[in-house]
Design goal:
Shape: globular
CATH class of the largest domain: Alpha Beta
CATH superfamily of the largest domain: ANL, N-terminal domain
Number of helices: 12
Structural class: alpha/beta
Helix content: 25-40%
Radius of gyration: 22 Å
Strand content: 25-35%
């Protein structure tokens, strides 16, 4: 049995936090990484952990955090797999400047730092406020003048990419990166096309807390040539689908298990497969296995007998709205009960800037015209203005939160 200690991962204390993680690794102890925004979680199951490692939160569209335990060696294996992927493209991993704007308590922000540690590369952590001000971010990166001759590896979620690509200084920063890993949520067609237009070296990827981060990736060359999806499995990864089209992953770096009140619950079946929460397609492209994510199964709804993935409709509406010059800040499709259909969709929406009533009315007319030709199950039946609408800190929708919010506030909301 190993004592489990907690590290509250405050961004302004990044160096202190990573020092404590390194010390835990060297001492062979076990740590739990927690967000600075939540209370420490009392995990009674910690008494069942054997061996040094990290307990890290994992949450899907349900919004309910679960806690995975990884031995430190899983992160080493993940870093090695990514290093070999980079070597196949002609890069020397240790030569990189790794730019990391993602939270340390999440695997998306933990792994860039761990890769730098493992590879001997230079790692630069970006504080959250800089990501909201591309000028400050650009100044910060310029301050790394000694490192500016290094190739640059940047990790982003799509919301961060959208913010940077829409600003001239942010765009220049992106153009200076040699590899831009984009994951955590679906990359919309409109954002991908904008990135290709500017020649940005994006590498859309797929991974999870359970897999110790990235398990598939598209190379920048493939992305720029117009290939879609999340790319090919890394060298230590096998992919498959359940009979219902849900993605399964097999790799030696799967989490040992999830922590429950009764102990560690294995996430693998008897054949070593972990079943994700994502519906997917697996195809062969030029003899390579290729992954395309369709949507979260815990976010899918049944509307009139049709399975509908709301995030696909959000991406579709964003893309089609560009053609009519609409400035949508955030848009979220949510299900409500319907006696005839089972479930129907409504929309929460916020705008990029304060809009007059006349502009909002005109914009809604355009949006309704866009969706009028969609399939009936895809068409929202109501639109609600929600100025506080936002994704979480790693660029994902906590759909349960907003479904609960809609239920509590729907009677008082402004119906557009």
């Amino acid at each position: 049995m190993i004592t489990l200690s907690s590290i509250r991962c405050n961004p302004i204390s990044f160096e202190e936090c990573t020092f404590r993680i390194s010390r835990s690794f060297e001492e062979g102890s076990c740590i739990q990484l927690i967000s600075p925004k939540v209370a420490a979680v009392n995990l009674q199951a910690s008494c069942f952990i054997e061996g040094p490692g990290v307990v890290i939160a994992s949450g899907g569209s349900s919004g309910e955090n679960q806690y995975c335990f990884h031995p430190f060696e899983n992160f080493d294996k993940s870093a090695l797999a990514t290093a070999n992927w980079l070597k196949q493209q002609g890069f020397d991993p240790k030569s990189f400047l790794i730019i990391n704007p993602l939270p340390l308590h999440h695997v998306s922000g933990f792994m860039p730092w761990w890769r730098g540690r493992k590879w001997g590369a230079k790692h630069a952590y970006v504080l959250p406020y800089m990501m909201k001000n591309p000028r400050l971010l650009s100044e910060f990166c310029q301050s790394l003048s000694i490192e500016n001759d290094r190739p640059k590896l940047l990790s982003l979620v799509p919301t961060q990419l959208h913010r940077l690509i829409s600003d001239s200084e942010g765009l220049n920063l992106l153009k200076g990166c040699d590899v831009i890993l984009v994951g955590g949520a679906a990359l919309s067609q409109s954002l991908a096309e904008k990135a290709r237009l500017h020649g940005l070296k994006l590498a859309p990827c797929y991974g999870a807390t359970e897999t110790a981060s990235m398990v598939t990736a598209l190379t920048p060359d493939e992305f720029l040539s117009g290939v879609k999806g999340c790319g090919h499995p890394l060298q230590d990864v096998d992919l498959s689908l359940t009979d219902h089209g849900v993605l399964k992953v097999r790799t030696s770096r799967l989490a040992v298990g999830r922590l429950t009140s009764s102990g560690l619950q294995s996430i693998k079946d008897s054949f070593g497969w972990w079943t994700s929460g994502d519906a997917a397609q697996i195809t062969l492209q030029s003899t390579k296995v290729h992954l395309n994510i369709l949507g979260r199964i815990d976010g899918a709804i049944n509307s009139g007998g049709e399975i509908v993935f709301p995030e696909k409709l959000e991406a579709k509406l964003r893309y089609e709205s560009l053609a009519v010059n609409l400035s949508i800040q955030n848009i979220l499709f949510l299900p409500i009960y319907d006696e005839e259909w089972g479930q129907r969709l409504v929309v929460l929406i916020s705008w990029c800037n304060d809009q007059s009533d006349d502009v909002i009315k005109s914009s809604l007319t355009k949006l309704r015209k866009i969706v009028c030709n969609w399939q009936p199950a895809h068409r929202p039946i109501a639109w609600y203005y929600c100025p506080e609408l936002n994704m979480n800190e790693v660029g994902k929708w906590n759909r349960k939160r907003w479904i609960d919010w809609l239920g509590d506030n729907r009677k008082n909301l402004k119906l557009l």
